[in-house]
Amino acid sequence: MSRRATFAFLLGVLCPGTGQLLAGRTTRALAFALASPLLLFPASLWLWTRSVASGGALLSFAATTLLAAPALDGAWLAIRGRDEKGRRRDSGVLSWIAVPAVFFGLLLLTLLMVTSFWLVPVRLDRESGRPNLLPGDVFLLDRRAAAVASLLPGDLVVFEHPPGSGRLHVKRWVGAAGQSVEVRGGALRIDGVPRAVDDTVGGTPESYREQIGERRYRVDRGDDETSTFGPFLVPPDRLFVLGDDRAISRDSRAFGPVALSLLRGRPLRLVFSRDPNTGVVRWDRIGLDPNRAVTP
After folding, report:
1. 147 and 250 fall within a common domain
2. Are 266 and 142 in contact (CB under 8 A)?
3. Beta carbons of 171 and 159 less than 8 angstroms apart
4. In angstroms, rounded to a whole number, what is the distance separating the alpha carbons of residues 57 and 43?
5. Are residues 162 and 279 in the same domain?
6. Residues in the chain where the model's pLDDT stays below 50
7. Spatial contact of 69 and 40, defined as CB atoms under 8 Å apart
8. Can you state the percent helix, strand and coil of the chain, rounding each to 5?
9. What CATH number is given to the structural domain containing 198?
10. Crossing angle between the packed helical segments 57-80 and 3-14, to the nearest 10 degrees
11. Are 201 and 286 members of one domain?
12. What pTM value is reported for the model?
């Protein structure tokens, strides 16, 4: 790839349409400036959220391809961007002002719409999600009704508590309506059946794995009085939630089962993570599924 094509690609990554301007294709540049925030970005986000739910690598690749399409097109045009007489094409100064203005203006509008009706960033500031979720983790919350309806026991859920407060909490859904929930020494039992699938993780008895349905996850348990609860029968239209750090979590053992109407969405990928004590960015956590943030 030539130096000009490389520059066009980098420009296209920063602002779709500018790579086409470098190749002298003003009309095509405006088309990408319009299509990227209105069509390509939303479509890529949709494919990405679908890949999170299904674990499909093909959907993730398709989402990445859509995002890279403007930059790749700009690089290709820069390679062959000469007229019939072999001269380089150039775009006017007004085009270099108009295309970024159109793109960033529409991008801001699209982001406002997406965060209002679809995806919202949520930052964690509590310890009760350890070891899977850490203070300083930021994940995207899918607020669609379809996302809420797809939640199953074993999943992390985001709910509002107290009702009407607007405060969001992240806990694990462990018990559905009609089930009996019991905690003994930090270990969960559903309808009298232990959910632990091994006794220790890393040689420490305080950390082990549980499984509900197809969801397997790490748990930190304590040996104090707060780690013993129940049995409790979950009433209709309610769900029982627990924090993964059983010793310190304030959850349904304290404030009771959560009404289904208080669910606010499905957690998606971690988009950022910073240690609140040291300020160090935890790069290895970015992109992880919150339900699988600790490798099983």
Report:
1. yes
2. yes
3. yes
4. 16
5. yes
6. 83-86, 201-203, 295-296
7. yes
8. 40, 25, 35
9. 2.10.109.10
10. 130
11. yes
12. 0.69
Q: Is 152 in the same domain as 141? A: yes
Number of domains in the chain: 2
Token digits of residue 153? 């026991």
In the chain, count H helices and then E strands. 8, 13
Domain boundaries, position 17:
3-117
Residue (of 276, 132, 93, 286) closest to 210 by Cα position:
132
Question: Same domain, yes or no, for 140 and 246?
Answer: yes
Q: What's the CA gap between 207 and 187, in Å, rounded?
A: 10
DSSP string, 33-65: HHHIIIIIHHHHHHHHHHHHHH--HHHHHHHHH
Give 204-260 pLDDT, tens digit per residue.
556 778 888 888 888 887 655 556 787 999 999 999 999 888 888 889 998 999 999
Strand partners, 123: 138
Confidence (pLDDT) at 56: 65
78, 155: one domain: no
Q: How far apart are CA 74 and CA 257, in angstroms?
A: 54
| Token pair recorded at residue 220 | 């930190």
Judge contact between 161 and 259, C-beta under 8 A: no
For position 202, what pLDDT does the model report? 44
Domain-ending residue, one of 117, 142, 159: 117
- State the residue for tokens 């309806």: 149
- Domain end call among 75, 95, 117: 117
Residues 156 and 59 in one domain: no
Same domain, 75 and 199: no
- Cβ atoms of residues 254 and 229 within 8 Å: no
